[in-house]
């Protein structure tokens, strides 16, 4: 069984790296991609090099997994193996739950609180079973655990404030039109960032390695101020020479920061992925070396030197995942949009009350400061924050100045955390730095601030839920392993491996996400000629109408059969479809501003198409939600007469949508009159059905909830058909 646990831990370590890098670690690539500093493969190559250097110098952080939140000498060999296995298995369950709910998570928090939950489970098992005279506090390293948690929470605040202040100062100095001033003083400014990156990455992050001579390390530690000054001067001179050679030193700084942040990530976060499995392997080696199973695992509390080849293998898996993971690119895209300079902020959530209150408070504070700030000072500051027109800004999320600040602040903070052996979350630091710089850059305008704050608070709350969820699940899983023995170990391991396969091999969610993304690309039609735009329009509308037809038909049939599962799936699909169309509406104005005079007519029809599709999806959502709620609440089902009437309506809807889709595929609108006739006939049928229902309501009454649902379906169906016809009319005008 011991060997089985070790092998299982090794498999979970590999899968943990893949999942962790895909959903968490790639945050260090956001600035490079957001500013489009280089081609994708170049950015990946620089990050991969940083990861490989970092994994070979991160052994110090392994001590966190071995003895960071509990005292290993209080546990026997068998208990410590159960502790590590319980933590890893619970982490897989936690990740699957969060993926299913679409909630953000952090591998650092899940590691710390997972270990805490598993250790507490074993401690309680011993105390309740009378196997020990020790108290709970003697098992848990509460002081160190509190320091780790405090460091994580403090990093959130410091990252936001640091990013905000550095960005504000940088923007006041250079403004958005920074080229002229940057040619004079850019080398000095980039020299500061490069010196900071070199100092904290090389002389702090790598000081425990043999890559740097001891004499040099001692001199730097004894003369920190002078060393930083020398680094600044040397970096500035080097960058000045590059600048005179027509090299864009901002790109050099960003790529250097990407390398540094990747290195810092690997040095700090690697423990989240392989720290626990590696500690389990060490425990196995210690037990094998002993004549009999040790009663105490005090050896785990001693500093360890990680195996070089194991670290290299872990780094290689990381690099391969960075290059190949589709999920990684989606994570990057989400944060880039949330911190984008554009006023467009796609969101799948309505603004929260707290977000609205924060925005009102911030506006009130800003108004108060504006009253006491001299007019000339306000005018000067406002002139420095005057944004570039969209055509000058291009399609980047933010400029090179902000990307440099993002990387500098994040790399320094994470390097400090690594030096102090605090497992700071790369996700926390990079995300909060990015949010701080975007706020300082005035990207949070009145049009988008409430949605950005909602997005940020959702992520932050997800982190706290991760802590509680990780602790509870680890406690429960470890208790099950202790009391269930070998049977429980095998059963839960098989369950978790099944969850891993489901999460990483199944492509249904990926295909759906790609479909939604493809819908959003309809805005690119504005850049095409009319014929190409028409092709893109019709493809988009055709796929939208086919989706509407499918969701509507399955919803109506599921209501007849009171199939709760199908209705729940249809609500989810209708919500995703509606949110994708709403995102298009948010993207509408920035794209229309880029129109040439000759393309105004194209933009006119684009506005109509986007609006009508959005209204159609809203009507569909107003059908699916009440249907699911009705069945989910176990209300009385529809009567036979109501089912008969809805079947007639459904047949007419399918017939009309079928004709619409045929016209879209052939781009021939000769059947428009026939569709209009069918539409009028269906409206007459709806009026007839409503009158029949009113008579039934007067004669027999029936279920109030079923009657309200019936009327709601009829009303929203009529609305949906009206907007569908309007979509076709807009496309017909475009063709002619």
Tally of individual domains: 2
What global shape is seen? globular
Reported for the largest beta sheet, the result is: none
Q: Termini, distance in Å?
A: 75 Å
Sketch the topology as an H/E string, one letter per element. HHHHHHHHHHHHHHHHHHHHHHHHHHH
Oligomeric state of the chains in view: single chain
Q: Which whole number gives the mean pLDDT?
A: 76
Helix content: over 70%
Work out the radius of gyration: 30 Å
Structural class: mainly alpha
Number of strands: 0
Low-pLDDT stretches are 507-523
Explain what you see.
This protein has helices at residues 2-23, 30-34, 40-55, 62-67, 77-101, 107-128, 142-174, 179-205, 214-222, 224-244, 249-289, 308-324, 326-338, 353-372, 375-384, 390-393, 400-419, 426-440, 449-505, 508-520, 530-561, 564-586, 588-592, 600-632, 640-666, 672-699, 704-735. It is an all-alpha fold and 736 residues long. The chain folds into two domains: 2-506, no CATH class; 511-735, Phosphate transport system protein phou homolog 2, domain 2 (Methane Monooxygenase Hydroxylase, Chain G, domain 1), CATH 1.20.58. Helix 1 packs parallel to helix 5 (77-101) and helix 5 crosses helix 19. The relative contact order is 0.12. The model is unreliable at 507-523 (pLDDT under 50).
